[in-house]
Amino acid sequence: MIREFNTLAASAEVEIRVRASRFLAFAFPVEDEAEARLVLEERGRVRFDATHHCAAWRFRDGLWRAIDAGEPSGSAGAPILAAIDSDQLVDTAVIVTRWFGGTKLGVGGLVRAYGEAAAEALSAAPRRRGVYAERLCVRYAFGDTSSVMHGLERSGATRQEYSFVEEQATVSFDVPDAEVEPLQRFLIERTSGRVTLERLGSTVLYRI
Are residues 146 and 159 in the same domain? Predict the structure, then answer.
């Protein structure tokens, strides 16, 4: 099972010129296809004087899209997508806006120009690693506080939220998938099974 993936931490924009044509590439992290299309539409509205707005995106669920937007088939969207895949990125989109400079580049020239623009924008964007995780809740008696805190520390738990009612405490937190079973075993052993662990749902942790 894939437990980690690479994506962008923020957007970046780079412009290149090829034989008088301008290529403005915008790389950005994205949650789903609807969001990617909204950004594409917005850039089309803002840069209405451009000749083409080509794009590609890849998501960690396997969904991808390559959009030529009027350029010859396979000359724009495919090289943009290839740049994303070359960097092994997901949840990532790149839009390359072109202003025609008067000289035809041919299919080969377009492939190189769109691919180069996309690659440079991706290179300029900061990266982060996503880790599949679980949101857990542990209920424990005050006497087991030390064991629970030790377990959370060794498992890399984040977003810890505590509540206290009489002699019982509750902590909710995120922990990487790979640490769930080891944490559960550790807590059961250290407390002789007195703690209660509940899975609240799946999430993702990001690391720069």
Answer: yes
